[in-house]
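Hi support team,

I'm filing this because I wasn't sure whether my run with pyridoxal-5'-phosphate finished correctly. The job status page said complete, but I'd like someone to confirm that the output block is well-formed before I use it downstream. Pasting the exact inputs I used:
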Amino acid sequence: MTNERNRGLLFGEKLLSEIRDKFYFVDVDGDGSKRLFFENAGGSLRLKSVIDISNELNKYPDCFARDHKSSLILHQYEIQGKEDVRTLLNAKDGAIATSLTASSIMFEMIGPMVAYGNGTNIVTTEIEHPSAYDSCKYYARKYNKELRVAQSDRQTGGLRPEDVLNLIDKETLLLNVIISSNMTGANIDLKTICTEARLINPDIFIVTDAVQHAPHGLIDVNDLKVDGLNIAPYKFYGNRGIAFAYISERVKNLPHHRILEDSTDLWELGSIVPAHYGAISKIVEYISWIGSNYTDSKNKRTLVEEGMKRIRLQEQALLYRLLHGSEKIQGLLSMNGVDTFFDYTDLDNRDLILAMKLDNLGCFETVREYEKRGIIVYERVSSSIYSKRIIESFGLNGIVRVSPLHCNTVDEIDQFLRVTQKILISIK
Ligand SMILES: Cc1ncc(COP(=O)(O)O)c(C=O)c1O
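And here is everything the job wrote out:
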């Protein structure tokens, strides 16, 4: 059953047009040819403001840790960027860590927790990205802990909280659960899992991967009370080359890789890149700007909350259209020859990432057919080490992942549906 609430709400035309103008390559490729980029889960469309500030700040030779004029300017970007990451995640305590990639920051976070936590087992899940799963596995081996793996939910493409909680006991030192699946878009009920896990073991460390969810929904570490959470700006309207993480108050001083004479809660190793901080500030500014179209509040967190809420509603409306189509065009759910695998009755708990497959065409070939017709999507198949465990946990060999963004229009979704119909006809 679908209801009005989970049909989402589109941006007004004027606002959507302003939003689209803020991104590069919304409906064209780099060479100017027409193209739709529905592969944001692999790296998202980028904000022009991010590229501008990055180019600007990267011009400076100055080290941010000096006292002359340009250094002080660069240093100010770092301070502001860190504050903006805190606003984005609602991090009121703890530390903000950085690293080159989301994968490396996951290993950096999990290592000290396993080394210094009390307990004999670690719980992770079948649907984790390899960076989180393998961090757990690596440190379980290193410190002689048992690794327990919660099964995926084949109905939703996510996880049932009870399947995770059943594995936790008083000896569980670390729990690792992703916020939403990067293959299926299913949101995980992390709040319930965190709350119940702490009732079983109040000292448990909880780490979550928010890389894929961050561009689609609000993050609140203060509410979740997790010990570690990572995001990657390149999946979040920004650049490759940096990942940020929140590290909780009780974890921030655990021994970790750092310059030993520097402060014990510093989770940055070496010279920082001011451009990355300027860029994350632009992402937060953008979300706040969307929020400012709906609220008069001047409070930055309130603006972020409102902005993410509106992004989510727009994406929900696009997902609804993708699934249900309109009077003029069939949606994927009712298109003969298309398999959508999972249950889409509850769109409140889904990000704008859809797993599908054409009945009579392989995933790789399907992706090529879309590309020929000007649409970029991506196959996630069991021959890839990044997909195998996750995809097979759903009893599948592969899916085609379709991941538009809030800056897409209903017309573009319809274009995707029309192209899907054309491909189906061509392979009959
Ligand atoms: C959910 C999730 N976590 C972590 C990562 C790792 O990101 P990176 O390759 O930048 O380390 C990805 C990348 O695809 C991802 O989708």
